[in-house]
Amino acid sequence: MTAFLSFLSDSWVLVVKPLSIFVVTFLIGFGLRKLLLSRLSRWTQKSKTQLDDIIISSLRGPSIIWLLILGIYLAIRFSDLPLNAIDISGKVLLVLGILSATLFLGNLAARTIKVYAAKVEGALPTTSITTNVARVVVFALGVLIIIKGIFNLDISPILATLGVGGLAVALALQETLSNFFAGVYISMARQIQIGDYIKLDSGEEGYVTDIHWRTIKIKALPNNIILVPNEKLARAIVTNYYLPDKELAVLVNLGVHYKSDLTSVERVTVEVAREVMKEVTGGVPGFEPFIRYNNFGDSSIGFTVIMRAREFVDQYLIKHEFIKRLHARYQAEGIVIPFPIRAINYEQEKADTTEKGSDA
Fold first, then answer.
1. β-sheet bridge partners, residue 304
2. Residues 313-330 pLDDT 10s
3. CB count, 10 Å around CB of 58?
4. CB within 8 A of 250, min separation 6: which ones?
5. Do residues 234 and 265 share a domain?
């Protein structure tokens, strides 16, 4: 009986007591965390700034780690472990605490850039590269604090080693690094931004959805994703349909019969185009459409109708509605769009043959 009580006493001191302290600390801290975040969330709903929302969302993950660290620290402190083991455990927990704080600050910096950079002209663009670079910089500072502040190590040899190792890595990863720096250049130049509709000289086109450290992600109109290496994009001839403005001209080439009254054709065509600009989604109501006759074709007098769309994809619906309405209006007005015709002048051919015969 005495041995059993002694076993229970030893178990209480070695296992049950520290475990109980850990569980109680974590549960109390978790309850306080939930209450505090709930109060803060209600408070942030009333504020106009988004910074408080960013701080709270960045706190949710690391705060759980901090509760675990606090529970483990108190459990170790009230245990019967040797003093050197307690000191070592304390340093390990301190390192974990700094890393978790670094994680919090990195997420805070990345989310702040993502929210506010788009609102400030000339600021960093909000791409995966910029947000990830912010995380890496903060994490590197945290590691340096751990090395210098906690372990009191000289970082000069470490930096020298990293420099030599970085040179070797750079030689081994030339293609990867060239894509990375090309992505940084593309992001900083701001000539291609998230949401732009672009077309490469190789034919790929679509909306830019993100710029990663290796590739740029383009969403094509058929809803497929095109991944283009950053280096290739930096060297390509790119048409950005959102620069300098999203609005663009919509050109429709047509032709009417040679016997048509061109003044009447111009009036009717402009009326239909003006109607499309005002009624069709994507048209620019304030724009005044116009036409320009430009050639005498084989079977028709050719001209181009110039309208305007709010952005690139709007032109498809505008062309669709314009052609449909113009066809009905031409039929009502008696304006003819001729089929392709090739006429042979037999009299001219006969005259040429006669002249050659007389010369002979």
1. 253, 292
2. 999 999 999 999 999 999
3. 20
4. 306, 307, 308, 309, 315, 318, 319
5. no
